[in-house]
Amino acid sequence: MISKGCEQCAKGGKMVLFVYGYCDQRDCFYCPLGENRKNVTDVYANERKVESDADVIEEAKRMSALGTSITGGEPQEAMAKTTRYLELLKDEFGEDHHTHLYTGITGGRENMRRLSKAGLDEIRFHPPLEMWGNMHGTEWEEILHIAREEGLTPAFEIPGIRAEPEFLEFLDEGAAEFCNINEFEMSDGNYRRMQEEGFELQEGHMSAVEGSKDDAILEEMASHEKVYFCTSVFKDAAQHRNRLKRMARNIRREFDEVTDDGTLVYGKAFADPERFEALGVPEEFYTVKSNHVEVAWWLLEEMVEDGDLDEGEIVEQYPTVDGTVVERTPVA
């Protein structure tokens, strides 16, 4: 089963809103947060550091976001920001802008009510690993019913550490709507502690953990109609790439080429802008910057080949707010 939030994510239409990196109640050895996200009070909308509410809206528009996924740490102070962003997004984009929250704490009725009132659609709980198999009769069972009573869609989202039938029981009992299992991954932020716990990378893979797609998880859990297994390859090849493509199509200039990977490609030259005017290059094919000129890459190649320009380079970069350059290819 794929939820509405996951459908939008697969299309690259989900903005990721990171609200704080502190977890007051948890210290999971597999937490993937890196140095710039862990134990910080910063907020990020995708790769954009949020300095004002306007940044959140601008980033959502940059990618034509269909919805927003909210994640981060769990301090109570983050609740005020989370509810404000929920209200902001609903006011700007309407009820069709689907929102879901990923959380590692139960929160209680008052928080469920506040989140629902602010416009949250779906809440995905990640119980601590030590509770797996012993959640019935605890606050983790209670909060599923409370969330539903307050108008939210309750669900589980867990890492693929091991097969745990209790999650399926909650689905069959109607307490949880679905369960997402993410392929267990290593990151810069957790690999040392993961190795201390005995986990290793899959051979030939950059992040997936050995055993995260073993038969027990796939056979016992992923075969259930309300369980969806999200692989690390899918996250990179579909979700991330499609999000980049959405951004690239929105911000591309007349002369930018959008690649299959969602990057932008253009030429960069260091000749005087007057040179382009003298050569009769149409204005839509180039842009003058402070110390260089950006131009259609194919036109740059042609101009260098014909001797109209001495040199330049072809630039490939992400369409994200930081504009990270992927590759530079000299042309001479």
Automatic annotation (TrEMBL):
What SUPFAM superfamilies does the entry give? Answer: Radical SAM enzymes
Give one GO term, molecular function aspect.
catalytic activity
Boundaries of every DUF8061 domain copy: 262-331
Supply the name of the protein.
Radical SAM protein
Q: Lineage, please?
A: Archaea, Methanobacteriati, Methanobacteriota, Stenosarchaea group, Halobacteria
